[in-house]
Amino acid sequence: MRYFEDLTPSTGAREPRAWLRSSRPRISLNGRWDFKLWDSVPSGEPVVGEGWGPIEVPGHWVLQGYDRPRYTNTAFPFPIDPPYTPSVNPTGDHVRWFDLPADWPIDGAILRFEGVDSAFKVWVNGGEVGTAKGSRLPSEFEVGSLLRPGRNLLAVRVHQWSSGSYLEDQDMWWLPGIFRDVTLLARPLIDDVFVHASYDHVTGGGTLTVETEPGAVVRVPELGVVTEPGVPVELAAVEPWSAEVPRLYDATVEVPGETVELRIGFRTVAMVHGVFTANGRPLFFRGVNRHEHDERRGRALSVDAMRRDLVLMKQHNLNAVRTAHYPPHPAFLDLCDELGLWVIDECDIETHGFIYTDWRGNPADDPDWAPMMLDRMRRMVERDKNHPSVVIWSLANESDRGGNFGELAAWTRSRDPGRAVFYERDRTYEFSDFYSLMYPPLEDLEAIGTRTEDVTTEDSALEARRRALPFILAEYAHAMGNGPGGLADYQRVLERYPRLQGGFVWEWIDHGLLLPGATDHVYGGDFGERLHGTNFCIDGLLFPDRTPSPGLTEYKKVLEPVRITGLLTIENHRTFTSTDDLEFLWSVTADGVEVDSGRLEVPEIAPGASACLEPPTTISSEVERVLTVRAVLAKDTAWANAGHEVAWSQFVLEQAVAVSTGSGLPVVDRGEVLRLGGGEFDRTTGRLTRLYGQEVDGPQLDLWRAPTDNDNGQGGRNGVTQEWRAAGLDRLLHRVDGVDVLDDGLVVRTRVAPEGLGVGVRTTYRWTASDDGLRLTVDVQPEGEWAGTAVTPRCGSWPRVGVRLELPKALENVQWYGGGPGEAYADSRDASRIGRYERTVDDLQTPYVVPQENGARMDVRWASLTDAAGNGFRVTGSPHFQLTARRWTTEDLEQARHRSDLTPRAHIYLTLDLAQNGLGSASCGPPTRIGLEVAPYTFTLTFRPAGSKSVDNYFP
Ligand code: GAL
């Protein structure tokens, strides 16, 4: 059997060991290599010749102009016939020369690959070295006997498909290649190090034992430790490591000729009466699932990108990361140690595609595959065992139940009793120290919190064991497109019950790829593939270029480790640290303009405690006044500077005194045109055609939005779009039933209804005008059987209730007083804060990779739209409204599949909504809990000229 199809994890590879920073000579073999792509497996050794080109290592050939990337969610892009691969098996030959100085220690040298996807064979100077599988794991080969001083030739043949691929069916791009570093290491004199550094929270002391080469000297200068391997050193006082205070001690392990540098964190994790604790306190994960992704480099991430991820996580109040669904680049875990994140390190195993055989042949349950699986577990644990940040080993993702997991768990527990073991998908949880689920509805989570959940296994002993386990929400809140909604609800439930130890949002970053020369991010289906996962991998809290999406801003708000509530209580929700690293600042605004500010005297608040304070006293006023209290960092940290905001809250001190905008001005009849206040109307259609000197068209009832991924649901399940379309909401026609000129205004009576159906909406626009402006009251009355009959489909909600207005394109400067600065929706609005903001229409757009409804600002009291000269209008809402403005229509947005499909039209389209349906998480999870009911609605909008211009004299 061919080596890339057999069930041998590797041939010729060394035993796995820790990733060490050593003083021994090393040569990086990263850089430019020669490359040739074959569409099936060639024979013989790679020899550079015709048809070869350059390739950057680390890298994926499919992102460097050879072949193209492929995305599937669960499906294997080849027939399920384990362990065989198709004849078309793209194979990349990589070759490079490198020089060894005459005095370089060749004897016993090791060639180390940090990650090669998915199987490979190595030659050095024509001699065969070995083979390996396991894409996201290191492999080492002894090559000393093949090396020589001077020029050396290294050749690596990489196969995209292998038996290993059956274990690597994660929901992500298939990206073959040598995508992590390649290094030549001089023979290690210290082969391995295993640091055990525990912390006793009762005494404040620590114990350090370092297993390594006999005869080595272990030093921790700061603690005055000089010791030998295997001997526990008791330390009377150490500062513990935690994600909140990632205290590390520099240490060395030395033998003559080699020094290994370590950074040690003292911490103890333990399961105490069904609660997972660190340093004696229950842990609570504010987490995210992170794939390795770079829009141009795929999984060949730079260390800068890794650091940026972690800095952003820390700045957004996250304290935990699950390395979904494979061990990350080893440098990432160093950074987690340094910056402070709890880590669930997940093994490179997912056999998800076997759902299509109803799990027949699942490797996880086939003893023949146990060696391949155990090999992966060992390579992860051995590589990563010295990181204090890693507190949980995850066996795999979504591979159903399988006996092999028993072997993996048993090996892991005996090798490393100092950490917990996790596996979500086996509903008995036999091999896991945690109970866990993905995407449960809130009710199910609540039931788990109260230990009243349904039985998950008929085996009563396993069931009883599971019921005693703590719960981790492995994945929730699918951040696909616009969303997720409901983060605050989940956080409330997670925090309510001690059994629930936090959760991990799916997922960190959109996997959109920018291919050489392209401007649009690609996703599944963009290459005409028949089998693909569409845009299901565009589901991150970061856009592909690593800028935070509104979902991350919302998550930061709901995760706040310090809560400012009531008037005025400060709660410290941290586990280990007080509030003395924070400063509390307040400010008061009147109509959005700051009128007063100061610093709050806050006593030091211990973790878990709270303090009640006197709110600052300020003057009162006629306009709305809002108090904002913010907690900011008092000093610079490794991940943010002093002044970085950690938490905030707002309190409306006084509502604005309502000014009546009565009628008074008469309608002036000019034949085809009617004038009222600053508005001019078409007599036949009743449409507003001019508003304070600007040519406009509208307003028209708007019930439709460009469906979001979460509106669409997953494969037609849970989605609302289907129901909305069936009710004709995407094809509404507007009929004018009458334009009535009254003594004190104008009434336009209409009926808005879908083609082909009997339901409709009576919509009346009542216009009045006074010196205070032009006022519109919209009255919306559903008619017919929206709730459903034999012929009319059931429609339980509307996307939105608002009016749309077409404006001149020059009115691109938007100012508003209300929620901002970013977008907000009914179930994703915690991060929206009341203020005065200014943006251009272009800047109001949220650049979702797949265009969809976006950009609404909530709780808007007033907004103005003006041109460069300041001409335009201002609109005030009662109740407050939602503001959306764009250069294309909702229908354009709906049609677009990529951002470049959106071409600005000659107008701006302004939608002023009373409300919109929530977002939810139905693209993979439950729908929104805040639906917009099909019901009568009334709302009022008052238009005035922008700036200080007077309301009259628009028609001299
Ligand atoms: C989970 C899976 C993830 C991802 C997610 C949806 O079931 O573990 O890998 O597919 O759903 O995006």
From TrEMBL:
GO terms for MF: beta-galactosidase activity
Pfam families tied to this protein: Bgal_small_N, Glyco_hydro_2_C, Glyco_hydro_2_N, LacZ_4
EC top class, as a word: hydrolase
Protein name per Swiss-Prot or TrEMBL: Beta-galactosidase
Family: Belongs to the glycosyl hydrolase 2 family.
Keyword line: Glycosidase, Hydrolase
Lineage start: Bacteria, Bacillati, Actinomycetota, Actinomycetes, Propionibacteriales
Domain Beta galactosidase small chain/: 675-944
Catalytic activity, reaction form: Hydrolysis of terminal non-reducing beta-D-galactose residues in beta-D-galactosides
SUPFAM superfamilies: (Trans)glycosidases, beta-Galactosidase/glucuronidase domain, Galactose mutarotase-like, Galactose-binding domain-like
EC number annotated for this UniProt entry: 3.2.1.23
Cleavable signal peptide: none
Superkingdom of source: Bacteria
